[in-house]
Design brief:
The protein is mainly alpha-helical and 475 residues long. The chain folds into 3 domains: 125 residues, Rossmann fold (3-Layer(aba) Sandwich), CATH 3.40.50.620; 113 residues, Serine Threonine Protein Phosphatase 5, Tetratricopeptide repeat (Alpha Horseshoe), CATH 1.25.40.80; 179 residues, DNA Cyclobutane Dipyrimidine Photolyase, subunit A, domain 3 (Orthogonal Bundle). It has 21 helices and 5 strands. Helix 1 links the parallel strand 1 and strand 2. Helix 11 runs antiparallel to helix 12. The radius of gyration is 24 Å and the shape is globular. The chain starts with a strand and ends with a helix.
Length: 475
């Protein structure tokens, strides 16, 4: 069993099939140098993966008995996994599907190398409820609009697709690790990384962490619809990183929501459908994972370029735009690796439609920073915000960062958490401090341009420029 984005024992599809098919199953995880070598030496995701793998190792030893555990190795997975399989003398390797372009290329190499040694590679669906071509239009085509997709997705959803795989039934088939392969999961330092602030954040790693967050959310799920857009309150599930690395089962999450009739639970269930939607977009329209717009005509947009665009982009990245909700959101992602979903839309719209900067720049920045980064959802979200994707926000709809702040953070509780220097400003001008009276600024101890930036663009003027920019592709 080759663990990848499924770092748990319970309800693990590939592990179940491996255990059911064979009298002995070795369990391996590769700290893939092809992925790790390009990352900064402090990366919360690497720390989360490492600690989750360590918990998985312990869970395997508890389930399988003496001598069992995780074979944790380092190196290029396309080379190390086939080498390990040959050394163990296995007949087959089992793993979960991964439809990201780099993963597909890696798996092709692994399949070829395993085949040359007479070893089969079997992969199974585990990351989503429905994948690839499981949900199609009546014409047998992949969906490109979410609403009809979600109707078909919900109509297809039943107990069969939500049933957990009974891995525990075959736990006695977990194989003991051979001599020379019994080393513990390498430390973060041994992998060439150092600790981050992950331990200070409410993101407990491993399957136990995923279950703890799920239990907490289960008590709030019925209010999800009314709280999900408010970044200052505890509305979301915060399970994104656990879904990303498979420390929780998507079937379990969908089952929890499916079993409850509340509007909140059903709204969250549709969010899981959105995630499946973007996964099937990536699988069926792979050009979106190659840096191209789903709507090809939007690749003709003339985005801002040159030193000025770079300076604006850096101000956006660093939270120096002069728009408090945008700056607080960027501080959140920079400090924690998390950003509230409403704020992902606001910041993405601001980059593309206020600053006129290519959505791909923002996509890459989020890919570097987000704990829960996965290509399908990140790409889908950025193309939605820039109007270049399938079922995207209309090109003429442009989020106003001031009114978004006034509507979704009216008391400024979220904004002031990250911008405490604005705490003494009157609430009515918090989201547009440049409109404050000089006396109010003085009373608050705020000098614009010193304590907080002046706006780097005028939203009304930027909106007009964006309408002209997008009009080119609509004619």
């Amino acid at each position: 069993m080759w663990f990848r984005r499924d770092l748990r024992l319970a309800d693990n599809a590939a592990l179940f099939h491996a255990l059911k098919a064979a009298p002995q199953v070795h369990c391996a995880f590769v700290f893939d140098s092809a992925i790790l070598d390009v990352l900064p030496r402090q990366d919360r995701r690497v720390e989360f993966i490492r600690d989750s793998a360590d918990e998985l190792d312990e869970a395997l030893r508890q389930a399988g008995g003496p001598g069992t555990g995780l074979l944790a190795i380092r190196g290029d997975a396309a080379e190390e996994l086939p080498r390990l399989a040959a050394r163990l003398g296995v007949e087959a390797v089992f793993a979960s599907h991964d439809d990201e372009p780099a993963a597909l290329q890696r798996d092709r190499l692994v399949r070829e190398r395993l085949s040359a040694a007479g070893i089969a590679l079997h992969t199974f669906k585990d990351q989503v409820v429905f994948e690839r071509e499981e949900v199609l239009t009546q014409a047998g085509k992949p969906y490109s609009v979410f609403t009809p997709y979600s109707r078909a997705w919900l109509a297809k959803l039943d107990a069969f697709y939500l049933r957990a795989y009974p891995v525990e039934r075959y736990a006695g088939r977990l194989a003991a690790r051979p001599e020379g392969l019994r080393a513990p999961v390498p430390s973060l330092e041994a992998l060439g990384f150092s600790r981050t602030n992950l331990g200070e954040l409410p993101i407990p790693p491993g399957a136990s962490g995923g279950q703890a967050l799920l239990e907490d959310f289960a008590g709030r799920i019925d209010r999800y619809d009314s709280l999900r857009d408010l970044p200052a309150v505890k509305g979301p599930s915060y399970l994104g990183v656990h879904l990303r690395f498979g420390t929780v089962s998507i079937r379990q999450l969908a089952s929890v929501a499916h079993a409850r009739a509340s509007t909140g639970a059903q709204t969250w269930l549709k969010e899981l459908a959105w995630r499946d939607f973007y996964f099937q977009v990536l699988a069926n329209f792979p050009q979106v994972g190659e840096g191209r717009s789903f709507k090809a005509e939007y690749d003709r947009i003339a985005w801002e370029e040159g030193p000025q665009a770079q300076a604006l982009f850096e101000a956006w990245c660093e939270g120096r735009t002069g728009y408090p909700l945008v700056d607080a959101a960027m501080a959140q992602i920079n400090q924690t690796g998390y950003m509230h979903n409403r704020l992902r839309m606001v910041t993405a719209s601001f980059l593309c439609k206020d600053l006129g900067i290519d959505w791909r720049w923002g996509e890459r920045y989020f890919a570097l920073k987000l704990n829960d980064y996965e290509l399908a959802s990140n790409n889908g979200g950025w193309q939605w915000a820039s109007s270049s994707g399938c079922d995207a926000q209309p090109w003429f709809r442009i989020f106003n960062p001031v009114s978004q702040g006034e509507r979704f953070d009216p008391e400024g509780k979220f904004t002031l958490r990250y911008l405490p220097q604005l705490a003494m400003l009157p609430k009515k001008v918090l989201h547009a401090p440049w409109t404050a009276r000089p006396a109010d600024l003085e009373a608050a101890g705020v000098v614009l341009g010193r304590d907080y930036p002046l706006p780097i663009v005028d939203h009304a003027q930027a909106r007009e420029a964006t309408l002209r920019r997008y009009a080119v592709v609509k004619t």
